[in-house]
Amino acid sequence: MKFKRVLLKISGEALMGSGAYGISTDVVRYVAQEVQVLRTLRIELALVIGAGNIFRGVAGAASGMDRSSADNMGMLATVMNSLAVQDGLQTLGIPTRVMSAIAMHNVCEPYERLRALEHLENNRVVIFAAGTGNPYFTTDTAAVLRALEIKADVIMKATRVDGVYDRDPEQDENAVRFTTLTYKTVLREDLRVMDAAGISLARDNGLPTLVFNMTVPGNIVRAVQGEDVGTLITN
Ligand code: UDP
């Protein structure tokens, strides 16, 4: 196995499926089935889920809201997504804990690093909810932060395309996928892998990021086994 402890970042939009808003139960079921396969390989798995399918702080701010209040709403929306995915996983019998950066004891556990490590060691999937707990950040940065805290081997960023391309593959069929990239190139070429704060944090701490297509069944497993799936970004 190339990676033993993995942090998987799924955007809120991915949870929408073909819908225009909210959570698709089909996508949740699909994610749960993919995770189930991973577990047969004894991979320790943590998840961070965005909230673009429900609410983004920048959108609230653009319509006149205070940015911090809007971001708090965005973070709360990630908790809803996390609970949906937890439910999907538990339905398949996969023990899962949601840990929120914003304490809400009646709904899920508060985030505590050592407790999260304990869950992982006890073969539970951990979903880190509510981002970093701070406005003006995104769940990409939260994913990098948590991946560093739990000493994950890699952050796997799930997208709809097969990795990072030199051009937009949905616009240009001659676009070429990069197998590997350096953080330096990503920042220099302004390749939209994740937001700049997340990229910088990953680069400064030598955390590899794998951008891959999660809509292809079995891709997560191929990726952790070290097959040429997606684009691996390192220093
Ligand atoms: N957010 C935040 N701080 C964080 C993480 C997220 O304020 O540490 C808010 C922010 O408003 C963001 C929203 O939560 O727009 C949803 O996260 P994101 O946009 O990263 O979701 P994704 O694009 O992955 O669906």
**Gap from first CA to last CA:** 21 Å
Strand content: 15-25%
Radius of gyration: 17 Å
Cofactors, ions, other ligands: uridine-5'-diphosphate
Numbering strands along the chain, what is their spatial order in the largest sheet? 4-3-5-2-1-6-8-9-7
The first-level CATH class is given as: Alpha Beta
Q: What does the main sheet amount to?
A: 9 strands, mixed
Contiguous uncertain segments of 5+ residues: none
Overall 3D shape: globular
What is the CATH superfamily label? Answer: Acetylglutamate kinase-like
What is the count of DSSP helices, taking H or I runs of 4+ residues? 9
Q: Can you tell me the number of structural domains?
A: 1
- The averaged pLDDT comes out at 95
Order of helices and strands: EHHEHHEEHEHEEHHEHE
CATH architecture: 3-Layer(aba) Sandwich
Q: Class by helix and strand content?
A: alpha/beta
CATH topology name, in short, is: Carbamate kinase
What's the β-strand tally?
Answer: 9
Q: What fraction, in percent, of the residue positions are helical?
A: 25-40%
